């Protein structure tokens, strides 16, 4: 199994992408897409990507819903900040957040989530100290942001990827 | 779009609303790029366009073509996926370049480099 299908999830994702691009689920499209994704996975073996796993689909779905709600909420908040700048005193600043997660895929997912929610930007990650630097547009309480990142995003991501 | 006239009213209305919302958010982001004060604040503004802004436009496109062609048109999902995956790369590149320059210039407003906290930097 491992020999012929070294990265089953990558293969499935590539096949799904192929079918979406072709806009068809005809046997021909599935066959050609299957062959293409299999070939791509065999090439990926040569690149030797870092090991990772992906499990607990229920946690992934819960996280996706939470992130979607957060995207809508923070879009609204940042749009308000831009359109009514003088409403109240606003401070932006950096927050240094210690992370327990070491898995590169989990960190990449966290970077995508943080960037996808307006108002927060992932600035840098220090792998020796395992800390990330976050820039927050509307910074009220630094400890609160550490809590949000750790509880809302890091813990479920560690469950999924580690 | 000559076929647009064949679209039922509810779909046309919903697609137009989504388009306006997405375009409005993207415009707000562009305004923020002008109005916000520092570089690190300005980098937040365009994310309005790359998240909910593009999301609304893609939803409008999916709705429009799905109703018009009476079959699910879903390949816009791929645009959203690639947008989410590639935006952090650009953002990190921009902010880290700005941070590097600020640290070099000894700007106190930015946090020091992690390696400089414990030990002295080798290059001084």
UniProtKB/TrEMBL annotation, chain A:
The similarity comment for this entry is: Belongs to the CPA3 antiporters (TC 2.A.63) subunit E family.
Q: How does it sit in the membrane?
A: Multi-pass membrane protein
Coiled-coil parts of chain: none
TM stretches of this protein: 5-21, 27-47
Q: Does the keyword Cell inner membrane apply?
A: no
The Gene Ontology terms for molecular function here are: monoatomic cation transmembrane transporter activity
Q: Which domain of life is it from?
A: Bacteria
> Where would you find this protein in the cell?
Cell membrane
One Pfam family here: MNHE
What is the official name of this protein in its record?
Na+/H+ antiporter subunit E
Print the organism lineage.
Bacteria, Pseudomonadati, Pseudomonadota, Alphaproteobacteria, Acetobacterales
UniProt-listed NCBIfam families: PRK08965.1-4 (NF006520)
Provide this UniProt record's keywords sorted from A to Z: Cell membrane, Membrane, Transmembrane, Transmembrane helix
Q: Single GO cellular component annotation?
A: plasma membrane
UniProtKB/TrEMBL annotation, chain B:
Q: Where are the transmembrane segments?
A: 12-34, 46-67, 73-94
Q: Which InterPro entries does this entry report, sorted A to Z?
A: PhaG_MnhG_YufB
Which terms in the Gene Ontology molecular function aspect does this entry carry?
Answer: sodium:proton antiporter activity
Q: Which Pfam families match?
A: PhaG_MnhG_YufB (PF03334)
Keywords from the named record: Membrane, Transmembrane, Transmembrane helix
Which organism is the protein's source? Siccirubricoccus deserti
From the UniProt entry, list the residue stretches annotated as the region Disordered: 105-124
Tell me the protein's name.
Cation:proton antiporter
Q: Does the keyword Transmembrane apply?
A: yes
């Amino acid at each position: 199994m491992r020999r012929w299908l070294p990265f089953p999830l990558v293969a499935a994702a590539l096949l799904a992408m192929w079918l979406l691009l072709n806009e068809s689920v005809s046997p021909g499209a599935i066959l050609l897409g299957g062959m293409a994704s299999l070939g791509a996975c065999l090439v990926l073996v040569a690149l030797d990507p870092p090991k990772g796993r992906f499990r607990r689909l229920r946690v992934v779905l819960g996280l996706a819903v939470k992130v979607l709600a957060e995207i809508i909420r923070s879009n609204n908040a940042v749009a308000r900040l831009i359109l009514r700048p003088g409403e109240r005193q606003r401070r932006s600043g950096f927050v240094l957040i210690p992370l327990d997660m070491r898995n590169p895929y989990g960190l990449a997912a966290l970077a995508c989530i943080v960037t996808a929610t307006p108002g927060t930007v992932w600035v840098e990650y220090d792998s020796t100290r395992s800390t990330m630097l976050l820039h927050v547009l509307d910074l009220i309480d630094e400890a609160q942001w550490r809590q949000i990142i750790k509880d809302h995003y890091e813990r479920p991501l560690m469950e999924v990827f580690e | 779009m000559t076929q647009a006239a064949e679209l039922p009213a509810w779909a046309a209305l919903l697609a137009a609303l989504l388009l306006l919302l997405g375009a409005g958010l993207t415009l707000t982001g562009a305004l923020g790029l002008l109005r916000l004060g520092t570089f690190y604040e300005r980098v937040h503004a365009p994310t309005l366009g790359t998240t909910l802004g593009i999301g609304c436009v893609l939803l409008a496109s999916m709705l429009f073509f799905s109703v018009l062609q009476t079959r699910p048109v879903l390949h816009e999902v791929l645009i959203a996926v690639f947008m989410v995956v590639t935006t952090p790369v650009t953002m990190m590149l921009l902010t880290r370049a700005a941070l590097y320059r600020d640290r070099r210039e000894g700007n106190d407003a930015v946090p020091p480099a992690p390696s400089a906290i414990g030990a002295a930097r080798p290059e001084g």
